[in-house]
Design a protein that fits this description.
A 7-stranded mixed beta sheet has the order 5-4-1-6-10-7-11, with helices on both faces. A two-stranded antiparallel ribbon has the order 2-3. A two-stranded antiparallel sheet has the order 8-9. The chain is globular, with a radius of gyration of 19 Å. Helix 1 crosses helix 4 and helix 6 crosses helix 7. The chain is about 35% helix and about 25% strand. It is an alpha/beta fold. Strand 4, helix 2 and strand 5 form a beta-alpha-beta unit.
């Protein structure tokens, strides 16, 4: 049986959007959406041993999770990992090391971002099963189709003017339609699945050090919450998705309490 550690990581406070991890989203605590989706995924894969932990320096967040999800292991975050410039990978590595002291080695570690609540259980399963089926990959993260392409309809600032984002290789014809350009994706910061060896051995905190796979999610349902404006817009999108699309409605319905 494979062993998977799911990490939920959240700092106290937030410079961009105060106490964003404690917000109520469409009538339910924001963090519960990640936990509910994780629970649905776990029920769909009984052959995988799943442990879930919360790494935070926020007692309020820890109490909120413990109230309805007491099985989630609370890992109080040390002061050294509490700053806003600490790479998130360091927090996930800390979670892995402490959980392995209790439970032995895991095969993979999956991080679910609290501020990306609009994911389905199938999204989680897709990312996990891509990592599970491709042992050559060090990391799988979720993406959406990019609405802009740096070869075709994106520009970069060059002093007092702008130029095309990426130039075609010398001697190759210019792209006259976006469909002709190489395919690009937006990283949506929702799901990350790390191979244990890659995560434990990484000393830079840089994702791009490994071979990466991309798991595609629905782009209209994704917006990472970094501001109050993001949050308000996401609630409008979320309310629509919960009312009209069953995979999203299942997550909201699965929230405890």
């Amino acid at each position: 049986m494979k062993k998977l550690l799911i990490t939920i990581c959240g700092r106290a406070g937030s410079k961009g959007f105060k106490n964003k991890n404690l917000k109520t989203f469409c009538g339910k605590p924001l963090v519960y959406y990640s936990l509910a989706a994780a629970g649905l995924f776990q029920a769909s894969r009984p052959d995988v041993q799943v442990d879930v932990c919360l790494n935070t320096d926020s007692e309020a967040l820890a109490n909120l999770v413990a109230e309805k999800y007491p099985e989630v292991v609370y890992l109080p975050r040390c002061e050294e990992l509490g700053g806003d410039r600490v790479p998130k990978m360091a927090v996930i590595q800390d979670s892995l090391a402490r959980m392995e002291e209790k439970n032995g080695a895991y095969d993979c570690v999956m991080d679910l971002d609290i501020t990306s609540p609009l994911r389905t259980a199938q999204d989680i399963r897709n990312a996990f099963e891509l990592a599970e089926g491709r042992e050559d990959l060090d990391l799988v993260f979720s993406v959406t189709e990019s609405r802009r392409n740096p070869y075709f309809n994106m520009v970069r600032r060059c002093g007092d003017h702008v130029e095309k984002g990426i130039e075609n290789a010398p001697g190759t014809p210019a792209f006259t339609a976006r469909q002709m350009a190489p395919e690009f994706y937006d990283v949506n910061a929702s799901i990350y699945v790390y191979r244990r060896a890659f995560l434990a051995g990484n000393t830079t905190g840089i994702l791009w050090d490994g071979k990466i796979g991309a798991s595609l999610m629905m782009d209209t349902g994704i917006l990472d919450i970094d501001s109050e404006e993001d949050f308000k817009l996401m609630e409008v999108i979320g309310a629509h998705l919960y009312a009209t699309l069953e995979p999203f409605a299942q997550v909201q319905a699965a929230i405890r309490g």
